[in-house]
Amino acid sequence: MKQNNKNFFLWGAATSSYQVEGGIKNDWTRAGFDSGRAADHYSRFKEDFDLAKELGHNAHRFSIEWSRIEPEEGKFDKKEIEHYRKVVTALQERGLEPFVTLWHFTNPVWFAESGGFESPKAVFYFERYINFVTENLKDVKFWITINEPMVYTKNSYWLGIWPPGRPLSPLSYFRAIKNLIQAHKKASVVIKKVNPRAQVGIAKNIIYFEEDKHPWHYLQKLGEYWWNEYFLNKIFDHQDFVGLNYYFHKHIRRETHPVSDLGWGIYPEGLYQVLGVLKKYNKPIYVTENGIADAKDEKRAQFIKDHIDWMKKAMAEGVDVRGYFYWSLLDNFEWEKGFGPRFGLIEVDYKTMRRKIRGSAYLYKYFIKHS
Ligand code: BGC
User: Fold this and answer.
1) Taking 50 as the threshold, does the pLDDT of residue 6 lie above it?
2) d(C-alpha 268, C-alpha 105), whole Å
3) Which residues have CB under 6 Å of ligand 1?
4) Hey, which residues does 147 pair with through a beta bridge?
5) Which of 327, 328, 345 to probe ligand 1 with, by most ligand atoms within 8 A of CB?
6) Which atom of ligand 1 is nearest to the CA of 335?
7) CATH class as words, domain 2-369
8) Residue burial 118-150, b: 16+ Cβ < 10 Å; e: rest
């Protein structure tokens, strides 16, 4: 699919460091959520990118692990940034456009101990880290500063199921959101200074809330605004594109749609609906994540096809979508749920680390080719 003369549509898949690399020690590891060897992507990235290329992708989203880059406060590890330089080069050599996430839920232990994103110092630390990374990866064009700030703060400071594990802490919750907004703004300025051509955004989880006529209708609208739009509105002037992570819809009735292995309702039309909502920002949109846990690979191909079809419908109606990244390229460590859920286009045998391409990955290849 050609977007216009200059921009080709980006097709690919996404991963994040802690979920696939292996050998990382960060605040999650300390909290007992150890991803161990994960999918050993740290040493197998070239082989994995060969597969992505073979599957017809022309872009790839991955994240940089802050705890590798700055294992101690203010001490930056040259070897580790060199590793990510090799990752970027490996993608470029295979014709895959790198889409680089700078923060995907994980923190160095020293940062967590200093108060994490609850602390106002977080903004300074984050900016300094971003500066180091971007200075060393000057030729990367697409940057995602922060992945899903609302999901992170909810799980960490409301539910308390993610590090730092602080349930029902409204003050911490609001402080962390405020600091994440500031952190993004500062980071975007740094990135633009280093590379004026860079395109900067965040990956924002957006839920499609189906209209339900009930007495709390207005309360729902408020919740919808808070979850979907508040953060994006706050950073409006500091983003070149909107990154959209779309997984599911919500309504108060019982789920009647088919579900994934995690019980998440499959509702592709929701992607069309939320793209319609994001149109008002008048910026290019990249679907930075969309995927399904489906160990048997029975529903994935249809899932991808239907979401792409609804995305195309939105595009035909004038929504400026420029890329789609399936979550995920590989099976990976699904945070507090561990290794059970299987999101990968590529199956990983965690004992042998052998990769096996799932059938749906070939269908995705077909959809890409014929788009
Ligand atoms: C996150 C991923 C996660 C995926 C599936 C997204 O919210 O960015 O890290 O694996 O959802 O749960």
Assistant:
1) no
2) 26
3) 16, 19, 147-148, 151, 205, 245, 289, 327, 334
4) 203
5) 327
6) 10
7) alpha beta
8) bbeebbebbbebbbbbbebbeebebbbbbbbbb
- Residue 343 CA to ligand 1 center (angstroms) comes to 9
For residue 343, give the ligand 1 atom closest to its CA.
5
Return all residues near 20 (Cβ < 8 A) that are at least 6 apart: 38, 39, 41, 328, 329, 330, 332, 333
Distance CA 332, CA 222 (A): 34
Q: Find the 4 Cα to ligand 1 centroid distance in Å.
A: 30
pTM of the entire predicted model: 0.97
Quick: pLDDT tens for 169-226: 999 999 999 999 999 999 999 999 999 999 999 999 999 988 777 777 888 889 999 9
Task: State which of 334, 342, 343, 348 you would mutate to test the pocket of ligand 1, scoring each by most atoms of that ligand within 8 A of its C-beta.
Answer: 334
pLDDT above 70 (res 57): yes
User: 98 CA distance to ligand 1 centroid (A)?
Assistant: 19
Tokens standing for residue 101: 């996430």
Atom of ligand 1 nearest to the CA of 203: 8
Domain ranges of the chain: 2-369
Q: What is the pLDDT of residues 315-365, one digit of tens each?
A: 999 999 999 999 999 999 999 999 999 999 999 999 999 999 999 999 999
Return the SS3 of 62. strand
DSSP 8-state symbol, 21: S
Task: For residue 241, give the 3-state DSSP assignment.
Answer: coil
pLDDT digits (tens, 9 = 90+) for 91-125: 999 999 999 999 999 999 999 999 999 999 999 99
For residue 139, what pLDDT is reported?
Answer: 95
SS3 content of the chain, % helix, strand, coil (to 5): 45, 15, 40
The residues, ordered by sequence, that sit 6+ positions from 9 with a Cβ below 8 Å of its Cβ are 1, 2, 3, 322, 323, 324, 371
Which of 37, 52, 7, 46 lies closest to 328, judged by CA? Answer: 52
Report pLDDT for 1: 62
CA of 60 to the centre of ligand 1 (A): 16
